[in-house]
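Technical annex B. To support the medicinal chemistry partners, we prepared a structural model of the target in complex with NAP, based solely on the information shown next.
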Amino acid sequence: MGDGKNRTINIISNYNTESKKISSILTKRLRDKGFLIPDKYSREAELNICIGGDGAFLRAVHRNNFPSIPFVGINTGHLGFFQEILPENIDDFIEKYIQGDYNIEEISLVEGKVCTKTNCFYLTAVNEIVIKGNKSKVIHLEIYIDGNHLERFSGDGVIISTPVGSTAYNFSSGGSIIYPSLKTLQLTPLSPISSKAYRSLLNSAIVPGHMVISIKPELKYENSILIVNDGVELKYSNIEIINLKLSNKIIKRLVFDKNMYWNNLKSKFL
Ligand code: NAP
C-alpha cells in the first residue's frame, strides 16, 4: 500500500486504443498505491489526469466546466504540448506526485461576451476565440482596444489567443509565442488585406489582459460571422459586438520540470 489512502484522482481518457491501455495501467498502479479512482468524474478529486493529446485536454477542460482541480496530461496524441508526461514515465510521475515534487502553474483563459440584437452569450476558451467569416468571403470588423478605435479590419478574421494558446492556431498564423505566466491576450489577423481598397494591420498586437478587445462586425456582415471557441464552431444571428478579455477564471496544471516549456518548444516546433 502506498500513500494515496482516501485520496481521489480522476482519470480522463480519450477513446484511442493507446490511451485506453495507458488508462487501465495507470488506474491499477494508482489503486495499488491506495488512491481512489472513481468510474465517473468526481468533483471532490485532488487531481485530473488527462490521457490523450492537446485536443483531449481541451475537451476535458470544457466538459468539466473549467474545474479548480489541477490537471496533468499523459501524451498519447500527435503533439501533446499541454501533456507533460510520456506513457513510459508513469511510475516516475506517480513517485514524484506522492513526494509533492512538482509546481502548480496557472493557465489564463480568454473570456468572450457575444451580444446580438436580443441577447448576450458568454464564452471561455483555453487556447483562443476566433472570429471569422462563415462563408469564404472577406469580412470587415471594427476593432477597439479599451474603447479606442484601432482599425477597420478586412480579411478572413482575427484570433484572440491566450498565452498557452499562442503556440496553437495563433502560431500557425504568424503570431508570437507568449510565455504562459504573462497576463496578455494576442490579437492576430487571419489573411489581413492591406491594399488601396482596405488597410488592416498585418501583424499581431499583444494586449494587456485587463483591457477589453471589442469587435463590431460591419452591419451587413452581422449574420456572416462564425465564432470558433477552442476549435468548436458557434453561430449567432445579428451579432452587434463581441468583447474579449482575460478571464478572472483560471485552470491549474502540475509542472514537474521547470525547463519544460522551453524544451517543449524546441522539441515540438523545430
Ligand atoms: P485538431 O484540429 O485536431 O488539432 C489541432 C492541433 O493543434 C493538434 O496537433 C493539437 O495537438 C495542437 N494544439 C492544440 N492546442 C495547442 C497548444 N496550445 N499549443 C500547441 N499545439 C496545440 O483540433 P483539436 O485537437 O480539437 O484542437 C483545437 C485547437 O486546434 C484550437 O484551439 C486551435 O488552436 C487549433 N487549430 C489550429 C489550426 C492551425 O494551426 N492552422 C487551425 C484550426 C485549429 P495534439 O496533436 O496533441 O492534439
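Notes passed to the chemistry partners:
The mean pLDDT is 95.
The chain has two domains: 9-101, 109-248.
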